[in-house]
Amino acid sequence: MYRTHTCGELTIANVGQEVTLAGWLQRSRDLGGMTFIDLRDRYGITQLAFNMETNADLCEQARKLGREYVIQASGTVIERSSKNSKIPTGDIEIEVHHIRILNEAQTPPFTIEDNSDGGDDLRMRYRYLDIRRNPVRRNLELRHKMAMQVRNYLSNQNFLEVETPMLIKSTPEGARDFVVPSRMNPGEFYALPQSPQQYKQLLMVAGIDRYFQIVRCFRDEDLRADRQPEFTQIDCEMSFVEQEDVLNTFEGLILHLFQELKGLGIGQFHYNSQFCQTHGQMLPRITWHDAMRLYGSDKPDVRFDMQFVELNDVVKNHGFALFDNAELVVGICAKGCAEYTRKQLDALTDFVKRPQVGAGGMVYVKYNADGTFKSSVDKFYTADDLKAIAQQFNANPGDLMLILCGPAMRTRTQLCALRLEMADQLNLRNPNQYAPLWVVDFPLLEWDDETQRFYAMHHPFTAPKPEDEALLDQPERWGDIRANAYDMVINGVEAGGGSIRIHDRTLQNKMFHTLGFTDETAYAQFGFLMDAFTYGAPPHAGLAFGFDRLCSLFGGVETIRDFIAFPKNNSGRDVMSGSPSPISNDQLDELQIVLKK
Amino acid sequence: MYRTHTCGELTIANVGQEVTLAGWLQRSRDLGGMTFIDLRDRYGITQLAFNMETNADLCEQARKLGREYVIQASGTVIERSSKNSKIPTGDIEIEVHHIRILNEAQTPPFTIEDNSDGGDDLRMRYRYLDIRRNPVRRNLELRHKMAMQVRNYLSNQNFLEVETPMLIKSTPEGARDFVVPSRMNPGEFYALPQSPQQYKQLLMVAGIDRYFQIVRCFRDEDLRADRQPEFTQIDCEMSFVEQEDVLNTFEGLILHLFQELKGLGIGQFHYNSQFCQTHGQMLPRITWHDAMRLYGSDKPDVRFDMQFVELNDVVKNHGFALFDNAELVVGICAKGCAEYTRKQLDALTDFVKRPQVGAGGMVYVKYNADGTFKSSVDKFYTADDLKAIAQQFNANPGDLMLILCGPAMRTRTQLCALRLEMADQLNLRNPNQYAPLWVVDFPLLEWDDETQRFYAMHHPFTAPKPEDEALLDQPERWGDIRANAYDMVINGVEAGGGSIRIHDRTLQNKMFHTLGFTDETAYAQFGFLMDAFTYGAPPHAGLAFGFDRLCSLFGGVETIRDFIAFPKNNSGRDVMSGSPSPISNDQLDELQIVLKK
Q: What is the pTM of this model?
């Protein structure tokens, strides 16, 4: 027995008890007559007291202990003279009778404090020290709690967690697979799953009508910031359900998580004043079309206003060619920003002209506090014209209107970037306020200019809305077909998404043809699923949440890396263990593969 | 809404209700005036009734439905005239008003019944149909329940589930790794984890003092029967603990599982009469040495007797050279088997002479019911001699003694095989009786004749017993060093195992040298763990349970494959999806690898 208590549990109620604690030396203070040591474990910090007068040997011994030494201390719990109200154990300390060094420690390369002096790279190299810090440990605790809540909630709803294989068949469609050479079947490879999509659909054919799994998935992509080659999904599928059943089930899950982990009920979310707020016990929904029209994004952040206002009606035919020739003129109104300086406005123009945003320029209209107007297009618009524009925006004196123009979809995307930038400048994106919603009615197909063909926006198994199904026979209307697909969006982030699946083989074949598969290529890739569908596939639907992302949203932190115990860097490398690494020639020989020179 | 109820929930209390069910057509019976359909879903079976007289059209329609069609049926719950007490819904049936075919089905290649006519291969190829069968579905349900119980139990004990990486560094020690070529780091490879051993030890260094994970692991081994290339482990690690703490914690888990999943308390296990049975609230323990001596196995099945009896004292020096020259003469006593025929005894001799067992022969001594003796060595032993042997066995009239001889360890292993064979013949291995126990004090090191060196029996991080630590300096005594290692054994199967880890770098280095590592080779493989240990590693210990195996034990079934949703065959192949499979040249090019011709 190394300890009788943890470092986080002793209080005034324990005074007088003989206890043994074990943990790491957080800091020590030598005050001459007394030496104090803060002993730390996962549960908290407890102060150890050593008295030079009563036990000089022990006190000397204590003074020699370095930071992060692992020690065991036995003594009596006593009341402190100067209490620390900031920690649960702050009323007591341990009058130590005996200490024992369990392990020595080198001085760590950065401080083990909430605000460490260690840079990102250093902390990743010594991740095992980084995790000793409260913020990182708390992230892992949150992740554990969320996983437990998810599992217990879904299990109580009759969902079965079924483990699907990690060594599966490689399919060229979609992102790039990680592959695993098979030694027993030379020249052949397994793939690591990008998701258990096909297996969960097979489980529906198998009659497991409510499936879930918190499951590792893999994507061999060039890593953008905050993407990981391996990530975790809450993967779900249900049979005998319509879209309404799925949305109800999984908003139930999300509401449960908000209640249990954040103490937030349905009435405590922060939707902007322009966004529908009253949905009873339901989360709000917005169609993909409206999301694009009003926020320029399929994952709108609706914590704050600045919904898009379309201006074609009021700005065209005033001799301003840029607007006259644009497919869409659209803007946002920044409340109370009429005082923005020339410099601030120039910076915003520069922002939208950055290659990542790609606008040609920005028009502003200031509705000054005194009721006058000032704009960058005064040459073309009279005060009355500007007033009409302001009315379109529902603007008040003191507001600032920012306007972009160009091809409709591209301009909306640009304005979305500007809207988020303004929200950041105005501190409207509080990570501790939440605005979850469903985006529904996604397009089924997405045109790709480069390859000149349509791709499945979601995946090839997503069902069109029944009322749009007939359009599959009209290739010129393919872009208009809506899918029974839905995303859960929280604070401008896609937390999860899914769809009703096609369970009918004829419709599935039609879909494959639409996506440019021949019967042969479709069968080569999805044959076993197509076969399965001939043996009695039930209507089914599913959804997956990004678990790392959900953790980071609930943690109020931007990066998912902070919620992964041992993440990889942007080159897919684990700098702590030095992986990936070369393997031996024997290993290569056994696998019957050769490296290219 | 596809259904108002499942097929398993309607009872006499629902009579009169209008309901809608959906499911698969299990069977239909055409009785002329009436047609009955058994509709099946995951939850049960409900009988649908169609009346030719009252609704001929609907009845005709129902008669056309084939096996495994997916159908939706609406109707009124009525009381059955002939009730079926075998199923929960057996008191009622549905008087159907409306049916709808949700999907047609080809006739399945085997019957979807508890006792299917499908062979193993066929059922694996159509695993999605196999899972529709009750026994397979129940196995997956048991697995889900066990995972939930494990997680909730450990979480309540302050264990954190932490996800460790799947793409890790390859280490040549131990079994063969599956490797994953890195496209972003050409020529380098990740490995899939054989276990998260190093990561869980790093988590201990990181201060996460109670870790667990239900985690997929991978081993590229030539597959023996009932081995899978990917398998699941309940992986655990704790800090600031001694062996006693670990054993207490995890026998708590196992006892919890027996209670919750099998309704078995500590007093309801089935230990043999020779085995210590009274341990209060604890599971019995046996040392590795005793397990080998008394059962010839480090995973003894103690549900039944036939403990080994050593006979050197009584059988030597009677002129029987085979016994006189043997290091060990050892036997078992089969109660009440004195009536075994010559043929049966010959079959047993053949059994022990099989190459898998490898004995040279078998000696028997019958203690006949009339008190006389008959043995295969009557030439060398008088009736009094044989009586002395019988006394050594504590045998009674009617018993049969079976005796092997040879080098001690090899003979024990052979006798273990004979003991299990006798138990099978005598039906002493009831899969619904359980005898869990701990095997402790394993040897630290194991001599390998082939490579002429010692290997770690457990792994290189396992700590020797402190009292045996000094023997590391005496190479001639290495075989005698005991480890602080322990296995949980249930019914002759290793359910889990673990050890106290070495947390001291000096001892770890000594251990590496003992295992033939140089400083360089040890550092190349385990450097980051060794580095971590210099920054304050706490004393720690851990254990892992084979989750697939634990499921099969609790399910009372021999093969783990039955508890894996989509298992692979003995060539590591998934015959359903056809994986592994060739990948495209583009994929190979991107990975910068070439296949050997």
A: 0.95
